[in-house]
Fold D-malate dehydrogenase (decarboxylating).
Amino acid sequence: MNDYRIASIPGDGIGVDVTAEARQVLDRAGELHGFRLQWTEFDWSCERYAKTGRMMPEDGIEQLRPFDGILLGAVGFPGVPDHVSLWGLLIPIRRAFAQYVNLRPVRLLPGTTSVLAGREADELEMVIVRENTEGEYSQIGGRHNPGQPGEFVVQESIFTRVGVSRIIRFAFELARTRSGRVCSATKSNGIIHTMPFWDEIFAEIAAEYPDVHSEQTHIDALAARMVQHPDRLDVVVGSNLFGDILSDLAAAVTGGLGMAPSGNVNPEGEFPSMFEAVHGSAPDIAGQGIANPVAQILAGAMMLEHLGEKKAAAAVNTAVEQVLAAGEVATPDLGGKSTTTELGAAVTAAL
Amino acid sequence: MNDYRIASIPGDGIGVDVTAEARQVLDRAGELHGFRLQWTEFDWSCERYAKTGRMMPEDGIEQLRPFDGILLGAVGFPGVPDHVSLWGLLIPIRRAFAQYVNLRPVRLLPGTTSVLAGREADELEMVIVRENTEGEYSQIGGRHNPGQPGEFVVQESIFTRVGVSRIIRFAFELARTRSGRVCSATKSNGIIHTMPFWDEIFAEIAAEYPDVHSEQTHIDALAARMVQHPDRLDVVVGSNLFGDILSDLAAAVTGGLGMAPSGNVNPEGEFPSMFEAVHGSAPDIAGQGIANPVAQILAGAMMLEHLGEKKAAAAVNTAVEQVLAAGEVATPDLGGKSTTTELGAAVTAAL
Ligand SMILES: CC(C)[C@H](C(=O)O)[C@@H](O)C(=O)O
Ligand SMILES: CC(C)[C@H](C(=O)O)[C@@H](O)C(=O)O
């Protein structure tokens, strides 16, 4: 029997509610498919920050290092500035473990409808491959002359050859296993130091994959295209910021953010990868038992897939689809009256 | 009789086609409303760049300075890198003339349908107020060790107190004349030097406008909201990059990019303002007479409004609406078979 050591970080708000459900579903999948998940729970969160002044202990990264995978709920709570909670937990984990791929598959699941008029499920399936360790999110920069009339702030976007090459290469490899199409998000007409560099590397790598159809679109036009012609997109690769924007948008045009999972993946498996829902901690509805656990359950399935338990991952995905298609158990965001726990239990039962 | 000196820069591709139509409509509006537009045409374009190595002459800015307004078509042509064509013309004009407001109203016009399911015209009307002179678009930055394994590029985003304050203040003033609601696009959770600064100034200015409802949303969530709940948005203020993305997206969920005008406005009137369609030069359909001139005609109406010819501006807007509502004259993108010229002429006739 395979054993996997999994770190669970439920975090704040509905992160706690949905992670509890995902664990139950994954445990049951393990029983049925012959593996065991050994969970260790960490209370790292804004609540912890409020008490201790730190989102995670100083040696947090070291504590996570031995795990085979990390399941993260969501962090964020009123009163703790977002840039504190995120730069104190989520972003350091992504970087320390070289989780340079943020993989965000979206598709229109059964029982849900798109906000786009007349779009069928099979036209709305794509995956956003987001660079996850550099780019527009950096700690370099600062503020000049605070409070003075001439005050200004500077933020450095940093793109390295290593960082850009590996994410683009990952996208091309992924496209080979899917539709054979890659679209790169750029803005080389406006942002003149980093984006032409991104395009250059994209062109170099595209030349190595003559069997993959490649194209690039400026982020503004690509956002428009995502609502006008999403059917023509499959693998979309973008920088940290562009991938972030496009994946929320892609989730919104398919089943909504309650349905979108995400993996922070270290493809080489040198370090643990981390899986989480795309949605945030939604403190306004936390603890009420009405949060939709589907995104977190699907994030769990991505984790199983990454651990090599492909059959179990497929079974979880299928169970989610069956429950949604039947439509009998649905949380309020899906137009139903069921609780978070009821929906989680229905997926477990469907396994 | 009021006379206005107007610089026309048709530019490349369909910019030429649609600017010709807009001129005719505006001239007729002048005849009917008692003013005259004195046009001077400039051939500044990628074609010019191909011949001379410059998009505009060295003293281009000086040549434009005496004008009361500028009507720009579009620039961009295959073979001329976008960052050359734009940083050689569009962006320097925006900056030299302190056109710090990029005003991008969108709404669902009669005779057009939204890509969003079940949305009515009156739910889809908003205006994106985009910062137009600083932010993520800057010339500061560069490349370290080209071609080496450790190669990287740096791009500086720069936000000044002056620049951020004036655009946010403009948005609040505008909201007072409209719905009384402003939403600020931010990303202070990921982008930690510039965006918390933006939020800080937004909060300071919001406090001066207790009568205006203010809120802020992260750009990723805001993109999602634009397709899920666009009805709850009216004035949306964002940085150069965020405003660019949001305005294309907003145009896409309303009538499409063929319908979206934009003004690069110097609100103090110290320098000429410039008006243009949001769409690009679309070289693939240039000169075929099938481009939709509506966005450029509406940009012309924005120019009339800015010049103080409010009745004429309203008349042009109404004429466009009437022609679209009748649906008899429509270019291919609107599902019709009419030419650019036929649609322009129909608007002129409707005046
Ligand atoms: C062409 C490009 C530089 C420009 C911009 O991003 O400003 C365009 O997208 C626009 O919106 O006017
Ligand atoms: C919370 C924020 C920093 C984060 C990001 O932008 O990376 C979130 O939006 C996400 O997509 O995981």
In short: The pocket of 3-isopropylmalic acid (ligand 1) is lined by residues A 189-190, 220; B 86, 244 (CB under 6 Å). The first strand of chain B starts at residue 2 and ends at 11. The longest helix of chain B spans residues 14-33.
